[in-house]
Amino acid sequence: MNCVDWEERIAWYAGGDLAPAEAQEVERHVAECAGCQLLMSGLRESLSLAREAHGEPVEAAHFAAVRARVLAELERGPARRWRFAWVLAMAAAAVVFLIALRPRPEQHLALPMPPGPSAPVVAKVALPRRQVAPPSETVVVKIETDNPDVVLYWIAETKGETK
Amino acid sequence: MAQAVDGPGTRVRTGDLAAFEGVMRQYERLVLVTAFRLLGNMEDAKDVSQEVFLRLYRNLDKVEAAISYQAWLYRVTVNLCHDIGRKRKPSVAMEDAPDPVSTADDPHQTLTGAERQRVLQMSLRALSTKERAALVLRDLEGLSTEEVARALGSSEATVRSQVSKARVKMRDFVERYFRRRV
Predict the structure, then answer these.
(1) What is the Cα B27 distance to its own chain's centre?
(2) ipTM of the assembly?
(3) Which domain holds residue A96?
(4) Does residue A159 belong to the interface with chain B, where contact is any CB pair within 8 Å?
(5) Which CATH number fits domain B91-182: 3.90.550.10, 1.10.3720.10, 1.20.58.2190, 1.10.10.10?
(6) With an 8 Å Cβ cutoff, is A126 touching chain B?
(7) Could you tell me where the DSSP H helices lie in chain A?
(8) B1-88 domain in CATH 1.10.290.10?
């Protein structure tokens, strides 16, 4: 048996994995073979280096980052669905409210505003002047607030209505 | 090494994320460092770790009913790393290796922590994916041959062969690495 055939067993032995009987065989061969002694010492050194490096501490920030990402993902799961449900419910309520207040064409709508120094909110309705509305026509309600940066639009479609 | 661990699954299942954070703290090193050794890249290892823990959370019932967390975590970590590793070129040529930094007579004794890390990562990259997984679990994580075989879904004889070949390749790499500086 040449040394190449011993290689796997010596490598296994170097990690302390061989059964006693097989380990004795390896020890006998290594004692007589200079090449395999070098192989054995090299294996032990590289294993030792690898284990030492592997045991060195890892920056805590890496673990914290993973934890934060996982927890954020888990918190987003069902909680986010509930948040969206709330938003959808509010949006649905707003739509119902707007439909109930749906203005007639050419009508100016004055919305009640809380008392204060700000200017009243005025809704302007712009609708093309036609006797008969087309099958589908868009109604746009522009609601100006006292905040120049906030303008609300309500867009609805009429379907074949006659004015 | 693998052992049965009392899982806080009941608390976690009732939405106790603090309990799950405790589970993560207990196993984060196992998952992140194993992934890092297998992939050689910390950002990828973090991505894998995140996915492993999310899967653990979703499969807590099955994991607790079956084996230990550890065995499950090793298996899922290795599988996810294999998925990522398939898209990469795993081998590293010695010519690509940066020059050793140490200049003392016995380089093994004078390596800094950073150099040791670099030599380990480079020698791992010189292995095949399966050899690397077998060596990381057996020699670095300290699992038994049987546990490694279970984690990798192979036989103990295969693991023994893979670990032996990996040890010889690693030794060859380390020797060549330090011979360059002589």
Answers:
(1) 13
(2) 0.80
(3) 60-100
(4) no
(5) 1.10.10.10
(6) no
(7) 3-14, 20-32, 34-55, 60-100
(8) no
CATH 1.10.10.10 residue ranges for chain B:
91-182
Given a contact cutoff of 8 angstroms between Cβ atoms, the answer to whether B27 and B40 are in contact is no
Of the partner residues A11, A46, A49, the one whose CB lies closest to the CB of residue B164: A11
pTM: 0.67
What does the alpha-carbon distance between residue B126 and residue B113 come to, in Å, rounded to a whole number?
20
Query: Would an 8 Å CB–CB cutoff place A65 in contact with chain B?
Result: yes
Q: Say whether residue A27 is in contact with chain B using an 8 A CB cutoff.
A: no
pLDDT digits (tens, 9 = 90+) for B80-115: 999 987 776 544 444 444 454 444 555 555 678 788
Which of A45, A46, A82 best tests the B interface by mutation, with the highest count of B CBs <10 A? Answer: A46
The single-letter code of the amino acid at A150 is: V
CA angle A78, A84, A90 (to 5 degrees): 145
Mean pLDDT computed over A5-24: 91
Query: Taking the CA of residue B166 as centre, how many other CA atoms within 13 Å lie in the half-sphere pointing to its CB?
Result: 28
